Amino acid sequence: MVDLAAIVAEIAEEMRAETRRGTVASYIPPLACVAVDKFGLAVVMADGAIHAAGDAEEAFSIQSISKVFALTLALGAVGDQLWARVGREPSGSAFNSIVQLETEHGIPRNPFINAGAIVVCDVLLGRLQPREAIGQMLRFVRELAGDEHITIDETVAQAEQDTGFRNNALANYMRAFGNLNGDVDLVLGTYFHFCALAMSCRQLALAGRFLMDGGRVDGHRIISDKRARRINALMMSCGHYDNSGDFAYRIGLPGKSGVGGGILAVAPGIASIAVWSPGLNAEGNSELGQRALERLVQYTGWSVFEPRVG
Ligand code: DON
């Protein structure tokens, strides 16, 4: 029997001593000013037990982790029709890369790179005004986490808007291929607000429970078990951009990262895990977040590739 409370505390202690912490994102001031020595970890077990350590209660910018929740909402809105406009293959490229769009006719490789998430937002705006889509997202993550205190950081959303030249290029380029229907500014405004969701590790791990528990939260169905399985598969294959193969190799869990330094990881049937450390590796994923998850699977044997009896 593993003592999860002790393991989580031990990992937080180990990470405190780490000196190679990566580099904090610097493209917008609200991310650049976050202290590199922050570290939080929260593990929510299938039976509801929560183990947290370090800065697990402090809200941070979840950034691209929001792409998981946006994808879930878009699949709920249009189902498998989504896949006519976004692929399901790893990109092997940076999160904000434009290169594949040229040869692949404006169809992004997957919903977890920026181009794919922008199309996902466009799909949501096929039925909702931006204000409604942003409200729907906020209600959704609050419901998933069971926490009404989750907010969107308007300072982050505005800073994203002010510096979003690449995202503007991606959106306009896809529009030229006929894969973006809405007004570019409105689609990006929605996308930036999703990126600006602020959540703590505890809130994020709670919000990930539906992916741990076959689409349910506390017995209440959010999505089908098949859809939960498939979103987990996409997180495993595409959740860390050009670092996804290495994440699967080292950690072996579905996961999604953000440039705020957060990672949501799922051990299906076992636990929903959120880790936060703002220093990033070269591919824009949390350096210590990955290391902490690596330690967690070493301690627990939670990798999905671990042989299971029965
Ligand atoms: O859209 C962008 O480029 C930023 N909001 C960052 C997105 C992100 O988190 C990419 N991930 N690692």
SSE topology sketch:
Layout: H1 4-16, E1 23-24, H2 29-32, E2 40-45, E3 50-54, E4 60-61, H3 66-78, H4 99-103, H5 114-124, H6 130-145, E5 151-152, H7 154-163, H8 165-176, H9 184-195, E6 197-199, H10 201-207, H11 209-212, E7 216-217, E8 220-221, H12 225-238, H13 244-250, E9 255-257, E10 262-267, E11 271-276, E12 279-280, H14 287-300
Helix pairs in contact: 1-14, 3-5, 5-8, 5-9, 6-9, 6-10, 7-9, 8-9
This protein binds 6-diazenyl-5-OXO-L-norleucine.
Observed structural traits:
3-stranded antiparallel β-sheet, Beta-lactamase, alpha+beta, 12 strands, 2 domains, globular, 310 residues, binds 6-diazenyl-5-OXO-L-norleucine, 5-stranded antiparallel β-sheet, 14 helices
Task: Name the poorly predicted regions.
Answer: none
Q: Could you name the CATH homologous superfamily of the largest domain?
A: DD-peptidase/beta-lactamase superfamily
| Main beta sheet | 5 strands, antiparallel
Alpha plus pi helix count:
14
**Rg, nearest Å:** 18 Å
Averaged pLDDT, please?
97
> Based on DSSP secondary structure assignment, what is the total number of beta strands?
12
**How much of the sequence is in beta strands?**
5-15%
Query: Can you tell me the CATH topology of the largest domain?
Result: Beta-lactamase
The CATH class of the largest domain turns out to be Alpha Beta
> What share of the residues lie within helices?
40-55%
Which geometry do the CA atoms define? globular
Cross-sheet strand order for the largest sheet: 3-2-11-10-9
What is the SS-derived class? alpha+beta
| Ends distance | 18 Å
What's the oligomerization state? single chain
| Total of domains | 2
CATH architecture of the largest domain, by name, is 3-Layer(aba) Sandwich
Bound compounds: 6-diazenyl-5-OXO-L-norleucine
Order of helices and strands: HEHEEEHHHHEHHHEHHEEHHEEEEH
